[in-house]
Amino acid sequence: MRAPSLASSLVTAALTLAVAAPVRAELRISDLEVFLNDLEVTVHVVLLGALSEGFHEGIQSGIPAHVRFTVELWQYNRYWRDQLLVTRIVERNLSYNVVTKEFKVGSLRGEQRPVFATRDLRDAQRVLSEVRGLKLTPATALDPAAVIYVRVSAESALSGENTFLTRMAGTAEQTFRQSDYRTLQRVQ
Fold first, then answer.
1. Taking a C-beta distance cutoff of 8 angstroms, is the pair 83, 91 a contact?
2. What are the φ and ψ backbone dihedral angles of 181, each rounded to 5 degrees?
3. What is the pTM of this model?
4. CA 118, CA 97: separation in Å to the nearest integer?
């Protein structure tokens, strides 16, 4: 009898990992809205699936979950590469206190907001995954004839570790979305 070759062993291992991979909800950005109100460019973002099923056990044992939004304002250039104008990073974490059985959502970076505390995981997830009224730049700083758009990338991870291995294990996810093109001048 022949010993199995290295290639067939690798194929078997890859198939075993693919079949054994945890089933999880996909992280996605459902609402991305760009407003030109109050003479400022303002963004609203809602992230769905920020806490997948693979996160729940870790959170219940006291491991914090982190969500990072990277919001970029770009200017479209017709004949050349688009120009990055502004980048804002909003980072939040969700921690669970096992003794008081309370979830706390705190801001780590990019915004000033009080710590939100609740005993309901749904409320904590809602606060963790919504960014409302993020002001990027004054509209006067932009060229009135420019065509702009917003790109948002979002990451969620246990302990803030977002690597290839943690994404394969189901304890980290990331997604990306781009808004429609907007102009500062009203087109008639």
1. no
2. -75, 140
3. 0.76
4. 11
DSSP states of 106-169: EEEES---PPEEES-HHHHHHHHHEEEEEEEEEGGGS-TT-EEEEEEEEEEEETT--SHHHHHH
How confident is the model over 56-100, as pLDDT tens digits?
777 888 888 888 999 999 988 888 899 999 999 999 998 988 888
The two three-digit tokens of residue 160, written as one number: 């803030």
Domains of the chain listed by start with CATH number: 24-183 (2.60.40)
- Are residues 83 and 89 in contact, defined by beta-carbon separation less than 8 angstroms? no
- CA separation, residue 102 to residues 58, 64, 105, 176 (Å): 15, 12, 10, 31
Q: Count Cβ neighbours within 10 Å for each residue of 105-132 and write b for 16 or more, e otherwise.
A: bbeeebeeeeebbeeebeebbebbbebe
CA 60 – CA 83 distance, rounded (Å) = 43
